[in-house]
Amino acid sequence: MSHLTPAARDAIEASDVVIGYRTYLDLIPELLEGREVISSQMMKEVDRSRQALDLAAAGRTVSLVSGGDPGIYAMAGLVFEMARESGEDLSFDIKVIPGIAALNACAARLGAPLMHDFAAISLSDLLTPWEVIERRLEAAAMADFVIVLYNPRSKKRTEQIVRAREIIMAHRSPETPVGIVTAATRENEEITLTSLGEMLSGEIGMQSCVVIGNSNTVRWHDFMVTPRGYRDKYTL
Amino acid sequence: MSHLTPAARDAIEASDVVIGYRTYLDLIPELLEGREVISSQMMKEVDRSRQALDLAAAGRTVSLVSGGDPGIYAMAGLVFEMARESGEDLSFDIKVIPGIAALNACAARLGAPLMHDFAAISLSDLLTPWEVIERRLEAAAMADFVIVLYNPRSKKRTEQIVRAREIIMAHRSPETPVGIVTAATRENEEITLTSLGEMLSGEIGMQSCVVIGNSNTVRWHDFMVTPRGYRDKYTL
Prior knowledge:
2 copies of one chain form a homodimer.
Chain A: H1 6-13, E1 17-21, H2 22-25, H3 29-32, E2 36-40, H4 45-57, E3 62-65, H5 75-85, H6 102-110, E4 111-112, E5 118-122, H7 130-142, E6 146-150, H8 160-169, E7 177-182, E8 190-195, E9 208-212, E10 218-220, E11 223-225, H9 230-233
Parallel strand pairs in A: 1-2, 1-3, 4-11, 5-6
Antiparallel strand pairs in A: 6-9, 7-8, 7-9, 10-11
Helix pairs in contact in A: 4-5, 7-8
């Protein structure tokens, strides 16, 4: 839990109830003592948010725990969507505590790939039409953004990453550095430095984030670095 | 310092020397005790990185402190650029500790604007040609990314934000929600919720981040929320 901020810790310690996916709650046993704990398995996000909102409406102080940053492709949005959908007046306060998102953690592990403009794109088409995702891949590739791919592949979704690479390859060299980070900051963390041409031979799964360099990104030792352009301005 | 992670704290505590911009070091006096401290004023990034690298090469353990996340438009890249430029073999280890970047903090303060694909774009044309920035603004606007603008305006650069809004307005309604967060998580933090049409009347400065919603982003109470699409899939 070396990336849990004091602000997040304080929020949990100020709560009566802590709700979260079991795997995350298991990481913070000392923060759960003396509190009501509602843990659940994967894929129950809607239930978890509903419970958090109901308990808050009943006057309890509730922490809904999310992995990474709750504000980046995570639980914060669902809570607001559901609260809004209920149509009732908001009788309690909702606060989002920022966290280290996968993109922050993966970038750090890879060196410094996000030194210039970047686009985060989720390849999951469960909630987003694939045409919209393709359009974003195309736009990001064309305009030379560093690209961070979330949800690149699962057991059932295996073709999206193949197609994404194809779209990006139309605009970028096969030598473009690519970093794959799986389970960043967790015990089973794995880091692979590869290239756009070779990336599909790397292990990419549900817990992976794939970072594709822009046209200036270089590989240097075991690092992936996107220069900002200081070299042209200063003598380094 | 409620957003300084234990990992960052540990890294500083394991160092012989701490180097950083004075304003940031002033926030962590208790971590500086008993260590050599090299603080400097704004705009000395190149000097700071050079010192950090020289001291590390001499065998010292050095922390180079950055605000936000050193890996997002910040110091990490410069360190790697300079180390690489020196042409020498790397005789020491370089580790990047991820942090809460402006985009994480600003998103949290605004509600949940980054629940869907987003692009981070810096409007500073000091190190990047303006044509490249315009092309990215155009691509991000066209493909309906949520857009996070870094370095939106300074005393000298006042026209970039005007032009950026114009480009985005060609693809998005003037009612699109926009959030402006200045000095996120600092004492002088300011949050403004406005719209693409009205955003230029808000206070935008050097320390601001501007978040422009996608075509689905809504304003709800004092929050800016980008729905993920759960509504279409589940009964909320």
